[in-house]
Amino acid sequence: MASTRSGTARRQYGVAALFTAPFFLLFGVFTLAPIGYGGWLSLHREQTDGLGLGGEPQQVFVGLDNFAQALTNTRFLGGFLTVGVYCAVYIPVMVAVAMVLALLLDSAYARAKRFFQLALYLPNIVPGLIAAMIWLYLYTPGLSPVVDLLDSVGVPFSLGSDAGAVGAVANLAIWEHTGYNVIIFFAALQAIPREVIEAATVDGAGGVRVAWSVKAPMIRGAVVIAVLFTVIGAMQLFTEPFILMDAATTINDSWTPSMYIYTLTRSYNLGGAAAASLILTVVLAAASFVVTRFSRKGATP
Amino acid sequence: MSDVSTLTRPAAEAAPPAVTAPERRDRRGVPPLLSKGIVNGILLAATLWTVLPLTWLVISATKNYADLYQTGGFELARIRLWDNLVHLFTFGDGLYLEWLRNSLLYAGVGAAVSALISVMAGYAFDKFRFPGKERWFGLVLVGVLVPSAVTTVPLYLMASDLGMTNSFWGVFLPGLASPFGVYLGRVFSAAYVPDELLEATRVDGAGELRSFAQVAFPLLRPAFATLFLFGFTGGWNSFFLPLLMLSDHHLYPVSLGIFTWKESLAADSEIFYPLVMTGALVAIVPLVIAFFSLQRYWKAGLTAGAVK
Question: Which residues form the ABC transmembrane type-1 domain (chain A) (predicted)?
């Protein structure tokens, strides 16, 4: 049966709906609806009316009160400060290390490229929880060769200090995520047309110069995407400090915004938790915007 | 987001134009052995840094509590890996096995279903014409950037209203829709399934479902494998959602289970230290297996998502 053109088109609507329905259904129920519900919750507070034991808790509309409380709460704001410092330490170091390793892998001198890629990527498949547990032991004085080594070269390390805690979590994150970005940067480097590099070489640039002034700027796009995803992940920091909390006295239950949200949820301050989540999302959106805008500005001098 | 798909190319065009010299001169001096040593030396040092902590875990999983404290972290004591494994799998009537099974269901079955959903939706976005297509796809792209922080707490409350907090479905279902998967599905479909081939099957009179199942899907198998691998590692590593949702030990995924053991360390170190160490090591094994058996695909997937 030969179908007419409009028949085909109509059939495509139906089949397109059929193919995309499972995704949009699940996306609607488990992503969009929670966002909407979170918005509603953030404007309400749970109150048990009456003095008796049998009173059903009721959601009372409180306007922007939850937001006002979150924005004046020093513990919540302190969490943003922690995460800000953490991002300032972690992201430049991670991106620089990943870039250097990717450039080295891309150089003509590198051997066993496949092996190095696999080995560098390995920590990325280790669950964050387990990675944090491994490093928790590696941060423990007496147990850890790392701490002993640092001590012996005159760099005392303690999880107990603010700088130590941020450094410890940053090192953990660098360990987990550098390999992923090495792979991405390396693939981007491989996509650079060989003529461009040959041209620079013919012009008399040395290997290091070609790597730094020709290759690195050309994978700017990949770097921006990597920074974007890293910022989004880093600002939601939860698992690693949550695990290190026992050993690091400066890490408390509201050390990062996500930990604060978890603590509020556990104490049934749901409106507060919802408001704090939305504030975190807005900050994330703003940060993403700044990253993409900043990079675009830089790209067109 | 369209610039994602062309990330490397405009950069390439912006590069200095190719050399105009009519003939290329010989490459300059032979690379000194020193450069080779430095390049590979740094790579080796970085590799040691990534691999040594895992080595430490492997070694620690062979020790009992006393040896863990009395011997160096990278020093072997009497090897008790077998004893530790027996202890791990028999403790609490095989609780760890239940956790492994749960993780396989949450992460394994979940990733398979999720990958299929993503491939189908991505394929539809690539191959079918329907009204408002790019607007719907825009919604998918916005979804990629939604942080889990904003959905997790309301999800927990919704589940709690429906009495589903302490249930398998409360953890399994929320992970199925993956906007990033749909995006990758579309990229892969454009790359792997030629339009002409589909035209040919349409001319032959095959229905859309049949041409997807018999013609397109076999070509999209690498996409499916990549998305499965991403979903599997993501699901296996998921911690925040199960931590909020579940209180019944028998429903825990392995990550949450190990966490509760870790929390019990202070109570009885001699029992729980080997459990935590060996449990953590065994929990990584399925990931390593999935990773190495599907390694043909993961790189293509990573780079398709971020570079191409």
Answer: 80-291
